[in-house]
Amino acid sequence: MSTQKNITVVGAGLVGSLVSIYLAKRGYKVDVYERRGDMRKANMIAGRSINLALSDRGWRGLEGVGIADEIKKIAIPMYGRAIHMKDGSSTYQAYGKDNQAIYSVSRGGINMRLMDLAEQQPNVTLHFEERCDKLDRKTNELSFFNTSTNKTTDVKSDIVLGSDGAFSAVRTQMQFQSDRFDYQQFYIDAGYKELVIPAGPNGEHLIEKNCLHIWPRGSFMMIALPNMDGSFTCTLFFQMEGKVSFDTIKTKEEVMAFFKQEFPDAVPLMPTLIEDWMTNPTSSLVTVKCKPWVWDEKLL
Ligand SMILES: Cc1cc2nc3c(=O)[nH]c(=O)nc-3n(C[C@H](O)[C@H](O)[C@H](O)COP(=O)(O)OP(=O)(O)OC[C@H]3O[C@@H](n4cnc5c(N)ncnc54)[C@H](O)[C@@H]3O)c2cc1C
Question: Hey, is 6 helix, strand or coil?
Fold first, then answer.
């Protein structure tokens, strides 16, 4: 390994932030370029995958650089799932016999913590509001457009790592600069919308805290994951189009009737249901596949 090599990581999401810590610990000089502003200084955008479930694979990724204990401080164990039936009753299924759990963690919280830990490495620099627009496969030169100053910076790098999400600019550039680059993208029939069960009057969780709550309804479902502030983030995974879908449930009356019919026990716990439904985005779920995803050991 050469300690001199510099690595450019595109995207400071969960992967970019974590991988920069791994690379720094191996002695590389790492520069991370993120399109958005620094989320540690701005309010998070609500209504887009606020929390996520961390399982064994996620913990191993964090343990590999010794930061699992730091993240555990902001994670809530969920020892089983609570299944909510249409008649309002519920049942419990433990994840294991020995208190095994998956963990609910704030997406923004874990991302910000990973950024802090990355910046604590002397050889990692995070750059914000820098959007990758171009990449030259042959020279490993990248162009970043600063969305605040409107200036473009060119960067040359020994290794480029694209961790810029589902609509990756790095991948798009790879696609156009290679013969026989396989690329496939498809949207599944369902999309999702995030809603909320707020905390009780004393900040308490209004349904069992240490559970992943599920309202399974065949072709659609709602889930709820606990947050540290006593609230739950609910996600409705639902058909985008069709007879009963995001497309057909539009008015306040239609939303309320649908929820009363499908999730009767949740309705009294969701005082801002209508407002959240109308305000929060309906987001798509996309699957992307590409091949090859490593080039000449210098672009990934
Ligand atoms: C509804 C939903 C629920 C999910 N639930 C879970 C869960 O419970 N557990 C779990 O483990 N996973 C879950 N996932 C999956 C998880 O979100 C992804 O695996 C993870 O976010 C991928 O991380 P990433 O860093 O590759 O991409 P992202 O998190 O998308 O980060 C990409 C980053 O790159 C930046 N970027 C984009 N374009 C550019 C550019 N041109 N230049 C510079 N920067 C750029 C973006 O601003 C962003 O910060 C869920 C996903 C969804 C959609």
Answer: strand
